[in-house]
Amino acid sequence: MSLESRLLDILSPWCNAPAWRVAFSGGLDSTVLLHLLARLNRQHALPPLTAIHIHHGLQPVADAWPEHCQAFCAQLRVPLQVVRVEVPPGASIEQAARRARYGALATGLGEGEVVVTAQHRDDQAETLLFRLLRGAGVRGLAAMPTSRALGRGQLVRPLLSVSRAELEHYAREHELSWVEDPSNRDTAYARNFLRHDVWPVLTQQWPQAAQSLARSAMHMAEAQQLLGELAMQDLAPASTPAPFAWLALPSLSLAPLLQLSDARQRNALRHWLAPLTRLPDTDHWAGWRSLREAADDAMPLWRLADGELRRAEGRLWWLSGDWLTEPVALPPFAGTTPVVLPGNGAVHWSGELPGGALRLAYRRGGERIHLSGRGRRDLKRLLNESNIPAFVRNRLPLLYQGEELLAVGNLPQWRPEAAGTGELIWHAPDWR
């Protein structure tokens, strides 16, 4: 089967997408991919084709690449978008550049659109070897999937079964030109060291190493799929609704998870956490044991890369975004008009507004509220009785009439007579 036919066959599930966008660096791999897709686009009824070049600005020679990419795209009659990104300094320039690149690709994708990248079989084999040396688990050893969600669309890698040698042959046959990134020769980078110093030795002894390692990655992907199916089965009993509909945080019931073996607990949590945060390494899973085994009154938490997992009221709760910072001073109360609370969502009054001077506040301790038929009650005790998670309590907006506590956000059952039939509605902050 020709390279064009193989490519078309792999991309067939996305032939009805609104658009295909090729991640075009100007290097050999993406040059061949763009050339192939431009030819296919002229021969078949395929989605509109455009190219996107991410300019990292990490080296002076890269300033000439957008011009080269523009000339090549003009020759193919494919529109090109050049996006410049800032790569923050850090321990790993490779990783920071990758995050910036994929972040830009995700931002530019419309609903249902597909971004097509040019990673090939040799890249897949290198990825597996690299992750094996880092001690990755099954998820990591599955290497790069053919497709995955990205932003509002999909990322597709249609060349994972194609060798670099095949791409080079195609490029020579069609007299294509491409740019060479000088940093690709720098063996101070781990991947370049594997590619230039380790890989030639491996292939000298095992000529089919790339094909074999890519096949192993496929086996790992299948194993990961099975682990995912097991995780979904194990998570089903734990995925019960939280007791407070207004608290729209990802959460799980803890008791069903505790009935599983340690390995199945970790597998289920990896699956659940994957869309929420970068997953922890093996050593960091000690945080899960500490969270799981802490005393109920310890308010345990497990800090992860992009947020934290809390245990409260028999559930696990995922917190990120504004939930990781303390809310700041409250603005003046605006009655029935929603008031944005800095770092803490928004609040408004529903119903007939009580008279008198009204103001918002947060808990400081010692608050009491007068309940009809129950007298003055301590707010802390009421919150304990209601099973409000501890990490929420200091965020609940309080409405005062003068010095009298009149209402607690989203808890109309504690409504003094002075509040009438109205309610203080709190729109809790987004966790994303």
From TrEMBL:
<dbReference type="InterPro" id="IPR012795">
    <property type="entry name" value="tRNA_Ile_lys_synt_N"/>
</dbReference>
<dbReference type="InterPro" id="IPR011063">
    <property type="entry name" value="TilS/TtcA_N"/>
</dbReference>
<protein>
    <recommendedName>
        <fullName>tRNA(Ile)-lysidine synthase</fullName>
        <ecNumber>6.3.4.19</ecNumber>
    </recommendedName>
</protein>
<comment type="function">
    <text>Ligates lysine onto the cytidine present at position 34 of the AUA codon-specific tRNA(Ile) that contains the anticodon CAU, in an ATP-dependent manner. Cytidine is converted to lysidine, thus changing the amino acid specificity of the tRNA from methionine to isoleucine.</text>
</comment>
<dbReference type="InterPro" id="IPR012796">
    <property type="entry name" value="Lysidine-tRNA-synth_C"/>
</dbReference>
<keyword id="KW-0819">tRNA processing</keyword>
<keyword id="KW-0436">Ligase</keyword>
<dbReference type="InterPro" id="IPR012094">
    <property type="entry name" value="tRNA_Ile_lys_synt"/>
</dbReference>
<dbReference type="Pfam" id="PF01171">
    <property type="entry name" value="ATP_bind_3"/>
</dbReference>
<keyword id="KW-0067">ATP-binding</keyword>
<comment type="similarity">
    <text>Belongs to the tRNA(Ile)-lysidine synthase family.</text>
</comment>
<dbReference type="Pfam" id="PF09179">
    <property type="entry name" value="TilS"/>
</dbReference>
<dbReference type="GO" id="GO:0032267">
    <property type="term" value="F:tRNA(Ile)-lysidine synthase activity"/>
</dbReference>
<dbReference type="InterPro" id="IPR014729">
    <property type="entry name" value="Rossmann-like_a/b/a_fold"/>
</dbReference>
<feature type="binding site">
    <location>
        <begin position="25"/>
        <end position="30"/>
    </location>
    <ligand>
        <name>ATP</name>
    </ligand>
</feature>
<feature type="domain" description="Lysidine-tRNA(Ile) synthetase C-terminal">
    <location>
        <begin position="358"/>
        <end position="426"/>
    </location>
</feature>
<keyword id="KW-0547">Nucleotide-binding</keyword>
<dbReference type="InterPro" id="IPR015262">
    <property type="entry name" value="tRNA_Ile_lys_synt_subst-bd"/>
</dbReference>
<keyword id="KW-0963">Cytoplasm</keyword>
<dbReference type="Pfam" id="PF11734">
    <property type="entry name" value="TilS_C"/>
</dbReference>
